[in-house]
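Attaching the record inline, Q. Sequence:
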Amino acid sequence: MKLTLEQMASLESEILKRVRARPGFSRVALARQLQIAPSTVGNYVGRLLAEGFLSESPAVPQNGEVEAGRPATALRLNPDGGHFVGVDFEARNIMAMSVDFSDTPIKHVHEQIAETDTVPQILKKIESAITAVLPDNQSKLLAIGIGVPGLVDPAEGVALDYKYIQNWRNVQLTAPVAEKFGVPVYLENTIRSMALAEMWFGQGRGERDFICVGIRSGIGAGIVAGGQLQRGSAHRAGEIGRWRFPRPKSTTSRLFLDNGASAPADVELQDVASVRAILGALERGRETKMKSVLPPEPAPLKFADVVRAAQQRDALTTQVLGVAAETLARAVSQLVLTLNPSKVIFAGPLTLLGDTLLHPLRKRAEELLRASGADLPVIVNSTMGEYSGALGAAALGVHEWKPAR
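Structure, as predicted:
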């Protein structure tokens, strides 16, 4: 049966994904995995070699095994095959990164979003960040991925809503960026793009069922099940930041309430355990002159201040982080009971706290799961750093792009 051009491009894209996931694949091994004839794989691999997307070298036999027929060659991605750019942003920050065809980071940039910035101004800053990380030879640019906070419609390239940026509703993103830079542009919720980064480059590599919990101004979960990123029927899968939990009973929990607010019976997860919520609680602790090693007012708190205070075992900081860890443990236990992942990966600034947050979170989640007759999966912090979202957006470009036919 003769394949259409779209089917041919999809097959070549799948070959590249297999090599990306396991550098050193032979043509015969690829044919086995794809369940197609070695001669067919050879034809497509030959085109990818000619186009400069793949390179090959003599394969080293594994455990003394030698494949029959022609000498095996190991296939790898050619770093010079092209570049991808990823952009990731949230309430106050824009991160952009470019990677070469073998996923090696090339350039990165960090721009800030001011509270007074309008939507058009933010879009200009996104374009500026992309321009700053473009390859010197712009013809090498293959695709751009954009990780967007809040609700998105990837098919239409529209950011639907994000409550932490004023007037951020129904924002058309992919069309103007594609027109400006002349390459395909792909859009995804930023937490799901982080999950892609973990799947391709990070703690999720080799895992078929895992959850990436991203914590910044809000909280979301990127869900990978059966090796596939899950989006849901309306692209709303993983909106766990809006889960409601009984209000923590700790005396410290009052710090998570806005000044003058009455105590609600329950609260959203992101109003207790996000970076925004933690900074807000500690700010209120400073305002009421609670004893702490945190910098005095009026300088605004930065998350680096929180990390330093936690390292010094500051009582106020430890109490606030304890409330966050308890609530996150409840969320993790529910995710585990629902999805049965082999691993849960935390991403975002809270990973800078290391085991200060992760140890009590693991302990409490294990208690909750044991009470329900379930086991605790591996729970780890991402190792990808502050540009994990931008790398994830680049991974989105890598994941969706197909060779031209």
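The radius of gyration is 23 Å. The chain has a mean pLDDT of 91.

More tomorrow.
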